[in-house]
Structures are given as C-alpha cells and as structure tokens.
Write a structure and sequence with these properties.
The protein has 345 residues and is an alpha/beta fold. Helix content is 39%, strand content 12%. The protein is globular and about 70 Å long.
C-alpha cells in the first residue's frame, strides 16, 4: 500500500503507539478524582501542556486545552460569549469544520475574531499570518495551524497569535488535539468550559501524552522532513505539471510551489473527476486525496477551488498528494499508476 493522503490523517508512529499503550495501561483513571493516581495524571498532563506550549509558541507558560479533535476545539472556542453575534474576519478557504462553527456565531458590527488557516489543507497554500496581523486591531487572532504544526514554523510571536491548534492525527499520534491560548478572556472561558458548562468531554490522558510525544518528534525532525517532502513534491511537479492528458488538456498546479507547503501538492486534472481518479488509484493500492477529506463524499465542487477562480468543471478535478515519511520509490509508483489510470478513465 502506498499512502499519499497524510493531510487527512497520517499513519501512527510505531514508537508513539507503543508509548500510547503504556500510558493507557497506567493512566486510565479519571484525572478529576481525589485519589493519588488522579493527582499523578494531572501532574503528567500539566507537564505535557508546558511542553506543547513550548513547542508551538517558544514559551512554556501559555494555557493549553486538551480535546479529542480539532473540530471539537473549534466548537468549544466559538462558544466564547465574546464572539456571539460578532463580525468575523475569515475567508472562503477555511476548513469546513471551522466555517460551519463560525456560521453558528452570527455577524454584527464589531470585529472580535480573525480566523484564518496557516496552511490551506486542500491546496497547501501558506498564508502570511504576520501580514494579516497588521490589520487586526483588538481582535482575537485564531490561527488554524493543524496542517503546519510539526511541519512549518508557527509565527506565534511575529503574528501575535492568540490561539493555535494541533491535531494528533496529522503528526503520527493515535488521536487527541490541543490548543494553546494567549488571550486572557478566552483562557478564562476555556478553563470552565468543560467542568462547569460541559461543552466538551473529559480528554483521555493517554491520547494527550501520546500527542505530546508525537509533537516532540515532529518538531525535532521538522527541517529534515520538510526537505524530504519538498524533494518528493518537486518530483511530482516536474513529472506532471504541464503534462498533456489523453483528452488534450494539461495538468495545472493550483498554487505555485513557492507559495505552498512542501508537504502538499495540489493538481487540477482538467476533464477528469478527481473522485473517480482516487477510486481508480485505490485499485492499484495507491491512496491520494480529492480535496478536503471532510467533504470527500459531497457531490458539490470544491469550494476552495471555486473561491480561487477555477471553473465549476475544474473544481471537480482537484487531486491532492500529501507527504509524511514517504519515499521516492512510492512517488515513482504513483506516477506510473497515474499515467495508466488517466488512459483507462
């Protein structure tokens, strides 16, 4: 099996999986209980929170909120009363889980929240969050960093970010998610969101600890992994960008390489529905993406591609490859199978 859909969910790192099992066997108790094991678990989670804060922001003292997924984190944060019926600054390129949550908030005259992605998960486009910060005023700046944590440097200080996010599924952990918060009002709300308002379930300690281990590994090897991913991306681009398809059209890059993450390459295969291509490639044991996994079964064209100005037909033709510990041999096999598939289409 060749797996090139890591932006949706990456394979679990064997070392992290082993650690997760040991954590699950030891730290299974409810951390809110009064006995000594609960106190031990709380201490472990506090230490892990300091590590997550240090890794994501360069500072160990920021508040960390644990949850089961980034989607759950978005929903909890957007329950903050200060965002209710307020004007939100965002874009049409945000993740569906975030935009769905923002739509429930409403819109008014103030601008208390800026919500933007660091890396667009479908096209891989890297947004300049520091430039966006120059017009923020007194707004809270929420940066969806799910696709960049452990892969690219997070501009925490430069962009004066208030909220950043990490998902275990994107960096080799078996699950779990965390956010780091700087804003004091949002932090105070989050500190009671679970215990008093029951807006979220109790986080599983083993997942939180395993997520921390995976994050440490990803950040430690970040530059090496980014360099390897960039080489694979270049190989795909050189082989396919501008390649004449059997239908007489050419494959196009959605975003220039210098403006996108080294871990994601997104192509528009004009005249071919990407959902069909994905299923045909699966029969060759090769797994790629057809846009955002959260909308993979939708019969609608890609909202991101439409927002970028692509035609409705081309918005059905986006194909995403995303890398995480892949090899040149795997990319070669994808290229071979892809050429066969478009001929058989």
């Amino acid at each position: 099996m060749i797996y090139l859909d890591n932006a949706a969910s990456a394979p679990v790192d064997p070392e992290v999986l082993t650690a997760y099992r040991s954590y699950a066997e030891r730290y299974f108790a409810n951390q809110e209980a009064l006995h000594s094991l609960a106190y031990e678990i709380r201490g472990k989670l506090q230490d892990a929170a300091a590590e997550v804060s240090q890794l994501l922001t360069g500072e160990a003292g920021h508040y960390v909120y644990w949850s089961s997924s980034a989607t759950a984190l978005f929903n909890v944060v957007c329950h903050y009363p200060g965002f209710d019926r307020a004007r939100i600054v965002t874009s049409e390129l945000e993740h569906p889980a975030l935009t769905a949550t923002l739509k429930r908030i409403g819109a008014g005259g103030r601008t208390p929240l800026i919500a933007l992605r660091h890396v667009q998960s479908e096209t891989g486009q890297v947004n300049d969050l520091t430039a966006a910060a120059n017009t923020r005023g007194d707004a809270v700046f929420l940066a969806d960093t799910v696709q960049s944590v452990g892969k690219l440097e997070i501009p925490w200080k430069q962009a004066k970010l208030d909220l950043v996010f990490c998902s275990g599924h994107k960096i080799g952990a078996p699950g779990g998610a965390a956010l780091v918060c700087r804003n004091s009002a949002v932090r105070d709300f989050l500190s009671t969101a679970r215990s008093s308002d029951y807006l979220d379930g109790r986080p599983e300690p083993a997942l939180c600890l395993a997520l921390t281990d995976a994050l440490k590994k990803a950040c430690r090897d970040r530059d090496e992994h980014a360099g390897q991913a960039a080489q694979l991306k270049t190989k795909v681009i050189e082989a396919l960008a501008g390649w004449m398809l059997p239908n007489g059209r050419k494959i196009r890059l959605t975003v220039p390489p210098e403006q996108s993450s080294p871990f994601i390459v997104h192509l528009v295969v004009s005249g071919y529905q990407s959902a069909v291509l994905v299923r045909m490639l699966s029969r060759h044991g090769i797994h790629v993406g057809a846009g955002s996994a959260c909308q993979a079964e939708s019969n609608r064209p890609s909202p991101a591609l439409l927002a970028l100005g692509f035609s409705r037909e081309d918005a059905y033709a986006g194909l995403r490859l995303s890398f995480w510990h892949n090899t040149e041999g795997q990319v070669n096999e994808f290229l071979r199978a892809f050429r066969e598939v478009v001929k058989e289409y």
